[in-house]
Design brief:
Length: 344
């Protein structure tokens, strides 16, 4: 299959520059049969035909069985494409229904899909899973998180690379817009499957894609690029905050006898509010609190109390975790459920 030089060369240069993937690796390429994942597969296969990259690519398809014959057609299409590219093919079939028989949420489906890809990668001895999220997906993700409420880390959107257990999940297309990928597929004469649920406006992401972003484009024509740039800046900020917070976390001591975590107040007073909040969240979770039940306002109240040395103040978090401010230190006492366990 002939390859146009433009996008393929740009993709190759990006891989060299960002070092998302090593020169040699076994990579499981998630492919639904849709335009984005087909473009990713063709691009990875295309650059792998040169002399530098020496990957072993394995095509993986997850059949959600949510669209009847259309789901089966996607699977058959992807299998045929893998055969045309002379690549091994793996498939995992899922039954994504709740106990009541209704369809499960988008988030639950995403988690099930990632878990299935993880199992396939392990079985195929792959160190990497490549997914086809692109710049438009990143822009949509940032907006979705802003609508639902988020912080700096949430505004960073999807990471180009992150761990998934012992495997590395990579998104090589995050810097490429959807339109460029479709133009590439047109240039190489590569068809793809169309998922009609991508236009179903009952899903928030689809409403953002088809309604909100076009509306925002009326105010800022480059809104997608602006949101992607926001994500990049937020990621840089999050890294700086995380680095500072980790320095604080390293100062924490844990006493098993008293089932409590201790930390001197002075380093907390001299650090940024964001880093202190992140460090306190980490300690509270370590003490048995639930991360999803630590509310932003509650955490900020704790930070303010610590910074003004509000002696004797005790703040209670989820699962009975209690943070107490003393003269020279703070104490975070473990939840009763956690401290009652004989061995930890």
């Amino acid at each position: 299959m002939p390859q146009p030089r433009g996008l393929l060369q740009e993709f190759d240069q990006m891989l060299h520059h960002r070092r998302i993937l090593p020169r040699q690796a076994r990579i499981l390429v998630g492919c639904s049969g849709g335009a984005d994942s087909v473009a990713l597969l063709r691009l990875l296969h295309g650059v792998n035909q040169g002399y530098f990259w020496q990957w072993q690519l394995i095509v993986a398809h997850v059949n959600h069985n949510l669209r009847g014959l259309e789901s089966n057609a996607d699977q058959a299409f992807t299998r045929k494409l893998a055969r045309q590219l002379h690549l091994p093919f793996r498939v995992k079939s899922l039954e994504l229904r709740s106990i009541s028989g209704s369809k499960i949420s988008e988030n639950a489906a995403r988690k099930a899909r990632l878990a299935a890809l993880g199992r396939m990668a392990t079985a195929a001895r792959c160190s990497y899973i490549a997914l086809a999220h692109h710049a438009d997906d990143q822009a949509e993700t940032v907006l979705m998180r802003l609508i639902r409420g988020t912080g700096v880390r949430g505004m960073a959107g999807m990471a180009t690379s992150r761990p998934l257990g012992t495997i590395r999940l990579v998104r090589p297309l995050l810097s490429f817009p959807r339109q460029a990928l479709r133009e590439y597929l047109g240039a190489v004469g590569q068809p793809w499957q169309t998922d009609r649920t991508n236009t179903d406006l009952q899903f928030l992401r689809n409403r953002i894609r088809h309604e909100l972003i076009p509306l925002l484009a009326g105010y800022q024509p480059n809104i997608r690029r602006t949101l992607v740039r926001l994500a990049e800046n937020a990621r840089l900020a999050d890294r700086a905050i995380t680095k500072e917070a980790n320095c604080l976390i390293a100062l924490v001591t844990h006493q098993r006898r008293t089932c409590a975590y201790h930390m001197a107040i002075q380093p907390l007073i001299g650090s940024s509010i964001a880093a202190v909040a992140m460090a306190l969240r980490h300690i509270i979770v370590a003490a048995g609190g639930r991360a999803d039940q630590i509310h932003h306002n509650q955490l900020l109240a704790a930070v303010r109390a610590v910074r003004r040395r509000a002696l004797g103040t005790s703040l209670q978090f989820s699962r009975g975790v209690v943070l107490t401010i003393h003269r020279d230190q703070i104490t975070v006492r473990e939840s009763p459920a956690r401290s009652e366990r004989p061995d930890r």
